[in-house]
Design brief:
This protein is α/β, with parallel strands linked by helices. Helices cover about 15% and strands about 30% of the residues. It is built from 6 helices and 24 strands. The strands form 6 sheets. A 6-stranded mixed beta sheet has the order 5-2-4-3-7-6, with no helix packed on it. Strands 12-9-13-17-16-14 form a 6-stranded mixed beta sheet, sandwiched between helices. α2 runs parallel beside α5 and α3 packs across α4. The longest helix has 19 residues. The two termini are about 50 Å apart. The mean pLDDT is about 90.
C-alpha cells in the first residue's frame, strides 16, 4: 500500500502556502478507507501509515506553521508525491526477489520476511570429511613429545569450513601407515568433499595420493606452482571431491583460502563463489623469489597494502595468518613490489562474486 515516509500532514498540492484545517490522525496500522483528502483540509499521518484517498504529498511536521490546535499553514513549495512511498516501488509482483544459489544472510532473510515469505528451499549443508596424516602429529588435547607437533591444520580447516556454512566431520590424525590410511579412506562414504592435510608431497612416507588412488580416486591435479603451497592435490573419488593440502601449516591455510573456499562455495550451490578484489597501493618495497606464484599475506588499511613482516616468513608458521586481514597473489616471474605499486587485494571471505575476473595482482 502507499504509505507515508514521514510524520506529517497528508495534503493536496493546490493548498501550498494556504492556511487549512486538519481533521483526523492516521497511525501506522490504521485503515483509512473512509478518509479522503480534499482541497482546504488535510489529515495528520505518521510514518508507515497508509495514505488516504486524494493524498498528493506528505508535508513533515517541521515544515508547517501551527496556527491553532486544528489549523496549520502549509509551506509555499510542496513537491508532488513528496514523502510518499508507493506500493510496489521497491519490488513489483513480477520481480525476482532472490535468485537460486544466493547465500542467505541477514539482508536476504529480512527482505523475504518483508514479503511474508517464512520458508524457502535451501541446499543441504555441504558434508565435509577432514583428516590429517603424519607420525609427528598429536592432537591438541593429547600430550606431545619434543619431536612431535600439535595438529593445528585440521583444527583450522574444520573451523574455516564451519565459518563457510559447511558441516565438517573430523576423521582424525592418522599415522603414516598405508593400511590404516586405506581403512580410513574406505569408510569415507556419503561426503560431498574430503579435505586432507599432509602426506601429499613426494617423501618416502607420503602415502595420501597412493592410498586414495588405490580406492579409485581420479587425480586431476598434483602439484601447484604456488608459494606457500606447492604440494597440493585435487581429484574425484566417485562423486566426492577430494582436496589434499600440504602439511606445513601456513601452506595448508593459504591453499584453503585460495582454492578450497571457492570450491566449497560452488559445491554448496552458491552462484557467487569467485573472489572479489579491492584496489590498494603498496606501502613499502619488498622482494621475493618468483619461481612460483606467491600468496602474500598482509594488511589492508585506507587503501594501502602492507605485506606482513615484509613477506619474510616461512610456510611452517601460522602467525602471518593471525597478523593479516587479506592477501595478494603475485604471478610466477614477479619478484618484487615497489612503494606505490597498485595491487589487487583479496579478503579471506570475499569469494562472493558471480563474475570470474582475473584476481592475480600482476
Amino acid at each position: 500500500f502507499d504509505n507515508s515516509a514521514m510524520d506529517g500532514y497528508a495534503v493536496k498540492i493546490p493548498d501550498r502556502g494556504k492556511t487549512i484545517k486538519f481533521h483526523e490522525t492516521i497511525f501506522a496500522g490504521d485503515n483509512p478507507k473512509d478518509l479522503q483528502v480534499i482541497e482546504g483540509m488535510c489529515h495528520k499521518i505518521m510514518t508507515g501509515a497508509m495514505t488516504p484517498k486524494g493524498c498528493e504529498a506528505v508535508v513533515p511536521f517541521e515544515k508547517v506553521e501551527i496556527i491553532d490546535k486544528n489549523t496549520i499553514k502549509l509551506p509555499d513549495k510542496i513537491k508532488k508525491n513528496g514523502n510518499i512511498r508507493f506500493q510496489g516501488e521497491e519490488i513489483d509482483k513480477k520481480d525476482l526477489i532472490i535468485e537460486k544459489g544466493t547465500l542467505l544472510g541477514a539482508g536476504e532473510i529480512a527482505i523475504l520476511a518483508s514479503q511474508g515469505i517464512s520458508s524457502v528451499k535451501v541446499y543441504k549443508k555441504l558434508k565435509v570429511a577432514v583428516m590429517s596424516s603424519g607420525d609427528e602429529i598429536k592432537e591438541p588435547w593429547d600430550n606431545s613429545e619434543d619431536y612431535q607437533i600439535y595438529n593445528s591444520n585440521s583444527i583450522g580447516i574444520y573451523t574455516f569450513l564451519k565459518e563457510l556454512g559447511c558441516e565438517p566431520s573430523y576423521i582424525g590424525a592418522l599415522p603414516d601407515d598405508k593400511e590404516k590410511l586405506q581403512n580410513a579412506v574406505r569408510n569415507l562414504k556419503g561426503y560431498d568433499l574430503i579435505v586432507t592435510s599432509g602426506g601429499v608431497s613426494v617423501g618416502e612416507a607420503d602415502y595420501t595420493k597412493e592410498v586414495f588412488e588405490n580406492q579409485g580416486m581420479k587425480t586431476v591435479i598434483h602439484g601447484i606452482e604456488i608459494k606457500p603451497g606447492k604440494h597440493g592435490m585435487f581429484g574425484f573419488l566417485d562423486k566426492t571431491v577430494m582436496i589434499g593440502l600440504p602439511g606445513n601449516p601456513l601452506s595448508s591455510m593459504s591453499m584453503f583460502l585460495t582454492f578450497v573456499s571457492p570450491i566449497a562455495g560452488k559445491l554448496s550451490g552458491r552462484n557467487a563463489y569467485y573472489p572479489n578484489t579491492a584496489r590498494a597501493k603498496i606501502v613499502k618495497d619488498f622482494s621475493f623469489n618468483g619461481n612460483r606464484a606467491n600468496v602474500i599475506f598482509g594488511t589492508l588499511s585506507d587503501g594501502k597494502f602492507q605485506a606482513t613482516d615484509d613477506y619474510k616468513y616461512s610456510s611452517g608458521m601460522l602467525s602471518p595468518l593471525l597478523n593479516s586481514n587479506c592477501f595478494i597473489i603475485a604471478n610466477k616471474g614477479v619478484t618484487s613490489f615497489k612503494k606505490g605499486d597498485k595491487v589487487k587485494v583479496i579478503m579471506p571471505y570475499s569469494f562472493n562474486s558471480k563474475t570470474n575476473l582475473d584476481f592475480i595482482t600482476r
